Amino acid sequence: TSTTSASFRQAMFSSLDIYTNYEIQVAGINQNGEGARSIALIVRTDEEMPSAPPSNLRVLNQTSTSIEIAWDGIPVERMHGVLLGYRVAYGLLGIPGSNASLVQIDVAEPDTYQQTLTGLRKYSSYWITVTGFTSIGDGPVSEPVNATTDQHVPSVAPFINHATNLSSTSILVQWTAIPTGHVRGVLLGYRVYFKSVHSTAYLSNQTGPSEVRVLLRGLDVYTGYTIQVAAFTAKGEGPRSTDVDVSTEEDGMFKLMFFSKANT
After folding, report:
1. Do residues 173 and 141 both lie within one domain?
2. Per-residue pLDDT tens listing for the chain (264 residues)
3. Which Gene3D superfamilies match (predicted)?
4. How many angstroms separate the first and last alpha carbons of the chain?
5. Do residue 181 and residue 119 come from a single domain?
6. CA quadruple 34, 38, 44, 45: dihedral, nearest 10
7. Which of 111, 128, 148 is a domain's end point?
8. Is residue 50 within 8 Å of 59, Cβ to Cβ?
């Protein structure tokens, strides 16, 4: 209740609740008491931004290029208006300003909401937040959650930089490790494929992730071989390198090394 002098025709009410309906009536007062009240006027205070973030933000599922998330809605008493939707922000961990991708979804259910973030980098870590908004603006941002997309196969092939015969039955193969950014998972190792000119099927030799050379033994004498190398993760094998052709030596060949004594 607010009382004013007879010369005033207006009143100010303060400290009201946000986005709340109020019933207002006016009555005259004299020494005999209060007169009849006017017809009630229903007035609602303006909206504000939500005062609470969505809660319980969590990751439900991941693939190599997507992350599915869910959260609990903002309590009605903390919405402070008509909730228009939620904004999900996400970016690559450790890369400032990577939150340029914003996903906006409409309110669909009163309790739990979900969204799948797609088109993500394979085997990459992301931070994710969510906030609710009204026509006035965004409310507080939720606590971030971190999630990593699933592994995939390597995206590039190793480069064979050396393949030479060491004897009539062996060939040494060396290659350059694939860059970390192209592994797209945990590198488990390399597979070296080789086949002779007399065969249509490749044989293989496997190495660990830190090894970048292998000695192929027990090969046919004086025979041409085609060699390929591929890296692999738990999800499978990446592309194979360009073919490299090399032949074993003839049987019985040997190398001579000549030395000359320097003049003193």
Report:
1. no
2. 777 777 777 888 888 888 888 898 888 888 888 888 888 889 888 899 999 999 999 999 999 999 999 999 999 999 999 898 898 989 888 766 655 566 777 766 667 789 999 999 999 999 999 999 999 999 999 999 999 999 999 999 999 999 999 999 999 999 999 999 999 999 999 999 999 999 999 999 999 999 999 999 999 999 999 999 999 999 999 999 999 999 999 875 444 333 444 454
3. Immunoglobulins (2.60.40.10)
4. 119
5. no
6. -40
7. 148
8. no
Which of 222, 165, 229 lies closest to 196, judged by CA? 222
Instruction: Flag whether 166 is in a domain.
Output: yes
Cα distance between residue 101 and residue 124, in whole Å = 15
Instruction: Please give the structure tokens belonging to residue 48.
Output: 């504000």
**For residue 71, what are the domain limits?**
58-148
Overall number of domains in the chain? 2
CA distance 127 to 115: 14
Question: Does 109 share its domain with 64?
Answer: yes
In a domain, 12, yes or no: no
